[in-house]
Every structure is written in C-alpha cells, then in structure tokens.
Amino acid sequence: MVTKRPTIYDVARHAGVSKSLVSLVLQGSPRVGEDSLRAVQAAIAELGYRPSRAAASLAAQRTRVVGVVIDDYTNLWFVDLVRGLHAELGPRGYRLSVVDVATAAQAEDPVEGLLATRVDGIVVGMEPPPGLVGQRLPPIVVAGTRETTGGTVGEVDTAVNDDAAGAALVVEHLAALGHRFVGHVASGGGAGRAREDGFTAAARAAGIRMVATEWRGPATDGAGYDGARRLLAAHPEVTAVFAANDLMAVGVLGAARDLGRDVPGTLSVVGYDDTSLAAARYVDLTTVDDRSFDVGGEAGRLLAARMAGGGGAPERRVLAPSLVVRGTTGPPRSVRSRLGN
Amino acid sequence: MVTKRPTIYDVARHAGVSKSLVSLVLQGSPRVGEDSLRAVQAAIAELGYRPSRAAASLAAQRTRVVGVVIDDYTNLWFVDLVRGLHAELGPRGYRLSVVDVATAAQAEDPVEGLLATRVDGIVVGMEPPPGLVGQRLPPIVVAGTRETTGGTVGEVDTAVNDDAAGAALVVEHLAALGHRFVGHVASGGGAGRAREDGFTAAARAAGIRMVATEWRGPATDGAGYDGARRLLAAHPEVTAVFAANDLMAVGVLGAARDLGRDVPGTLSVVGYDDTSLAAARYVDLTTVDDRSFDVGGEAGRLLAARMAGGGGAPERRVLAPSLVVRGTTGPPRSVRSRLGN
Predict the structure, then answer these.
(1) Residue A65 backbone phi and psi in degrees, to 5
(2) Per DSSP, what are the bridge partners of residue A318?
(3) Is 80 exceeded by the pLDDT of residue A253?
(4) What residues 22-41 of chain B have any CB closer than 8 A to a CB of chain A?
(5) Residue A27's CATH number
(6) Does the distance separating the beta carbons of B74 and A73 come in below 8 Å?
(7) Which residues of A touch B116 (CB under 8 A)?
(8) Are residues A198 and A66 in the same domain?
(9) Residue of A nearest to B76 (CA)
(10) Are A296 and A83 in contact (CB under 8 A)?
(11) Of A316-325, A331-340, B40-49, B242-251, which range is least confident?
(12) Is residue B131, in this structure, part of any structural domain at all?
C-alpha cells in the first residue's frame, strides 16, 4: 500500500500514447479517437490512476471544499448542522472538512489551516475566531447566534434559529405545568446570551420568578453540573432549571441526582438543541429543537450563492424553533400535592 | 466579504514589481533585495494575499492533509483519537480533515471525496469501506480493531487497544464484586467481535455464566437499549451487563430504568471506550479506557513514517487498556443481602 502513486506519464506509457493525449481524455475532449480513448481508460483503471484534484483546482482557482469550524466535537448540536450542509452542498459538488478548534489546540491554528487550504467557503459554527475578522477571505456564513463583537457577525450571511423564541417556549411550557420559580444555568457566547435574555424576558412577562447563574464560559457538562449545584444550593425552592444547551442540561441532571432531587418529581430540567444525547432513553430530556439540520440547509444555500459569485447585502435567515417534551419535565411537587400525587 | 481574492498579479502591481519577483519572495529566495522584499511583504499584508496552497501542493505533489474517516460523529470515541493524531501530526505540518460516512450519506461517497482531494494519508477509524480495498492509495493506517474481511486490514499498519484484554478486565472486576451470571450487549464490527470473544473466554475461564445478544449492527444507543430489554427479559437473573461500547451502555442504562432495575443496586453496567459521555456525572459509567489518545499518537507516527516514504512490512501497535471504575458497578443484590445491605 506504500507504492508510488501513478502519474499521468505512467498512464501514457501503459496505454502506449502521449501524455498530451491522456490529458485530452481527462478533459473530456471530443478530439480523441475511440481506440485511444479505450486504451487510456483501460490504463487508468489498471493502474488505479486518479487525476490530481490539486491540478484541476489550481486551473479553476476552486477547491470545491467547504470548511466547517466548530469548537467542541462533544457538543453534538453540530452533527445535524453538518448533515444539513451535506444535503445542500453535496449535490452541488462540494465536500466538507470539519475542524474542531479545541481538538486541534496543539497543532497549527485551525483557521490558518483552513485558509491555507484555500477552501471555497467557510461555515462558522462557533464564536468567530479573531483570525476570521478583518481579513480578505472566501465567503463566510455564520451558523447559530453569535456575539457581534469583533465585527464578523453583521458583515456576513447568517443562518440561525430564534433562540429568544425558543427560550420563550420553555417558559410557556414550565408556566403551564405550574412552575413559579425557575432557574437558568447560563453559558457564554451569543447563543447562550440570547437564550438567557429570551428566558428572562419571557419569565418576567409571565410573572414567574427567575434566577440565573453567571457563568460566561463554554457550555459543558461540567459547567452545567457546577452551575446547578450552586444555583440549587442558593435557591433550593427552584422547581425547574433551563440549561443553555443539552450538554449542560445533562450536567444539571447529574447535580439533581447528587442533591437527591428527583427528576421531574422535585425538579424539572430543560435543555436546548435536541441533540442525540437528549433523545437517548436514559437522558430523555425535554429540550428545544434548534432546527440544526434546516439551519445547515439555509447556511448551505447562502454559501452556495456567494461561492457562485452572488453579491448584495448580508442576509440573515431565522428559523422558528420548537419544543420537544420528553421525560424531564412535569408539574412541580407543590402542584402535584394539590393534585393528589 | 465577497470581494475577489487577490492574486499574485495584484501583489506585483501593488508593490510595483514583477510577478516573478513576487514569486521569488514567496519561495524565500535569497536573490531578492531588501527594498523589493519589503515592498512585496507590505503589498501582501495590505491586500491580504495568501499564497495558493494548491499551487504549492501541486509542485510538491503533497497536500499536507491527512483524512480521518469515521462512521458516527455521535460515538465520541473518535474525539480522543483525533486529539492524539493532532498532537503527533500537527507539529509535522499536517492538518486533519474528518469525514463522517453516515453524515455524508446524501452527498458523494466520502472515500471518493478523500481520494479526489489527494490527501497524503488516511486514518480509517471504522470498518474499512469497500472503496479502500484493492486500490492504489496513499498510505493508510487503520485505528481500532476491525474485521479482516475485505483484505485491507493485515496489509496496512494498524494501531489498536487490546480489546480482548479490556473485556477480560471487565470480567475480573465483575467477578471480584461477586457476579455469577452476566450479560453482554454485543455489536457488529471487529472491535465488537473482539470484545465479545474476550468477554466470553474470560467468563468461561472464571467459571461465570454468560449470555450475549446477537446484534451485529452499529453500536448505537438504540441498539443498546433494545438489546438490554431483550436480554433482561429472557434472563432476569443476570446481575451485570457489559455493553460493546459506552453509547450502547447508556442505552442499557435506559433499559434498566424502564425495567425498574436500580443501577448498580440490582444491575451493574459496564461500557467500553471511556468517552466524555461515560465521564458525565449523570452517566458516571464504569468503562474500559481504550487509550484512544495514545492509539491516535501511534497511528500518527506510523502514518508519518509511511508518508515520509518508509517501506517495510505492515506494523501493528497494540496498547494495553485499563479499567475505569465509576458508579454503575457494585456487588449484586444477593451479595449485598449477605453483607447486610
């Protein structure tokens, strides 16, 4: 398997023709006779020759590769995003290269890496890194709600779900169940901020008491666990916790268990993203479907238009999220008692 | 952000020099005078020009990209593998492009895609797809135990953890806790097979009764749930279940909850891989550490040697796994009763 890759010269020698003729065949030229065509095709098949994509790309100044930058492989919200991108860009001949900034920390700067490869377009599924701001770049689409600091967001196309509307759906659900004092385990980043602001505003409008943690770092299982421990220690009378995403919500479930809070008996828990983790039977998490697949589709269409040379002002596509009710939410204990449970 | 990418001609015009001189600067030629050098560097910075990697790659017949093929982003075992590969290949100037076969199902064949990009090397973190067999390819390293059907495994370098030894550690742990009748929720694939065979052999050697499911498909949460439901319905006297991997083990935890089996009170559960999912407080899963990061490191070193032109017979690096005891295993109820619990 370590044999040298066959070249166009090997193909020409094997077929008994000139290199120029092989080149014509590869270009699909009609000037090649039937016999020569068959001889070259047979040689290509026998040698396992593959035309250099680099050569074709150089000629066309295109690579047909779209880079996707994310910040955490273990936060599974990106999986449906990538599926949606594939569904939209695959049939257009683009391939995706997914780069996780955290995983690559010990290697070269992943943004530099993407740029060096000359991807035709970039989908940013995280807070835009500094390297993406103020440079001349291929077309960029930002997927998901991001902070506007740094200048990138607002200057490029974006595809998002309406995080504030999603958070309002959570308040509506919890209010309908009878919850009157709810907690929010917050995270940093634009999506985290939008979800917190939306939750706060909706709770106020519904006349529900609300407290939130002040964490502004990454939305991890550990941060969800620590945030919930602190929040529930300070406010044990909270009957429901909304976490900034599913990963943090699983951390909240861990904290609830360690604190002896039965879910949903004495504590309801809600996440955001509707990842495969939320859908696992053991987790069975009530969550907000952030429409990742559709956001990926919109991002793909926006990017395809830019890569095809389309101009015009930056566009913003906003999709309506929906609530997915599973086993981690129910009426609070006080309401249960009144109902005779 | 949709402005045209600057070319080497733009740089030359901006710097007031010839294109050839810009080219010499880009090649780091010592034949360029100080003034010209500064003018070109200033033009490059002002225009945001980036040398075409495609051009450099074409010249060198190298892309410095290593493709990693996996079959499921939601099975998090690959995350540490990629970290290990980055740690080893990043400093050597390679970047990684991760392709998930399942996610790309609607687009072009991902293996074809990798080959078309002319990656310098491929790490296969799944059962080798048909496209990888019998073709002339760049160097390949297979990471993880795979089926030997198809011809690829055995002809290429491999880096694995010793799955049979890992399964034996599980038997040892369960036997020491007092379990005498254990179940295995199996999966398809080489790693699944090796773990099942190792578990079966070790249980027999330890004189412990064992039953296994017959599933040969992907190791998913759903398959783990269904397998455990069936196994525990047929053999309710089983006191511990070892799943083929962490994802399936979380499915087993879901089944245990739905069946009213307290974990670890009336059922112990063990996974394999020691993923971030197993380490989440809410899951807190006893599992086997498959040394993914180190396997990635070994795979990276093997691949780097081949990409540097190294020949010789295929090598196989085998790493010893270790057991990570968390909250899902304990003595079986019968033993607990005798102990006065």
Answers:
(1) -115, 135
(2) A160
(3) yes
(4) none
(5) 1.10.260.40
(6) no
(7) 50, 53, 95
(8) no
(9) A74
(10) yes
(11) A331-340
(12) yes
Query: Residues A193, A131: contact at Cβ < 8 Å?
Result: no
Domain interval for residue A188: 163-290+324-339
Report yes or no: A33 and A180 within 8 Å, Cβ to Cβ: no
Structure confidence at residue A110 (pLDDT) = 59
Bridge partner list, B243 = B185
B280 contacts in chain A (CB < 8 Å): 221, 250-251, 254
Residues A83 and A96 in one domain: yes
3-state class (DSSP) for residue B61: coil
- Give A285's Cβ-side CA count (13 Å radius): 31
Contact B82, A103 (CB under 8 A): yes
- CB of B285 closer than 8 Å to CB of B251: no
Pair of tokens at residue B146: 């795979």
In a shared domain, residues B47 and B167: no
Across the interface, of A54, A79, A105, the residue whose CB is closest to B73 is A79
Based on the fold, state whether residues B193 and B120 are members of the same structural domain. Answer: no
Residue type, A140: I
Short-list B228, B227, B161, CA closest to B194: B161
pLDDT at B23: 72
Q: What is the mean pLDDT of chain B?
A: 85
Residues B263, B203 share a domain? yes
Judge if A335 and A261 occupy the same domain.
yes
Inside any domain, residue A132: yes
Q: In what order do the strands lie in the sheet with A268-270?
A: A209-212, A181-185, A240-243, A268-270
Note the pLDDT of residue A135: 56
Calculate mean pLDDT across residues A118-131.
81
Residue B130: CA count within 13 A, CB half-sphere: 1
B225 → closest Cβ in A54, A116, A281 = A281
Question: Can you read off the two tokens belonging to residue B243?
Answer: 């799943």
Phi-psi region of A52 (alpha: psi -120 to 50; beta: other; left: phi over 0): beta
Flag whether A244 is in a domain: yes
d(CA B138, CA B157) in angstroms, rounded, equals 12
Judgement on whether residues A234 and A284 belong to the same structural domain of the protein = yes
DSSP state, residue B106: G
Residue-wise pLDDT for A21-78, tens only, equals 877 666 555 567 778 877 877 787 677 666 554 444 444 557 788 888 888 889 999 9
Q: Residues A185-226: pLDDT tens digits?
A: 999 999 999 999 999 999 999 999 999 999 889 999 999 999
**Which contacts qualify for B201-207: CB closer than 8 Å, 24 or more apart?**
B201/B164, B201/B168, B202/B167, B202/B168, B202/B170, B202/B171, B202/B172, B203/B171, B206/B171, B206/B172, B206/B175
* Residue A242 located in a structural domain: yes
Report in angstroms the alpha-carbon separations of B115 from B26, B67, B322: 28, 9, 36
Residues of B in contact with A250 (CB under 8 A): 280, 282-283
Q: Hey, what amino acid is at A12?
A: A
Q: Which residues contact B29 (CB under 8 A, 6 or more apart)?
A: none
Residues A186, A225 share a domain: yes
* φ, ψ (nearest 5 deg) of residue A210: -145, 135
Q: How many structural domains are present in chain B?
A: 3
pLDDT, mean over chain A: 85
Say which range, A76-90, A180-194, B12-26, B319-333, has the weakest mean pLDDT: B12-26
Question: CATH no. for residue A148?
Answer: 3.40.50.2300
Lowest mean pLDDT among A234-243, B118-127, B293-302: B118-127
* Among B residues 175-194, those touching chain A with beta carbons less than 8 Å apart: none
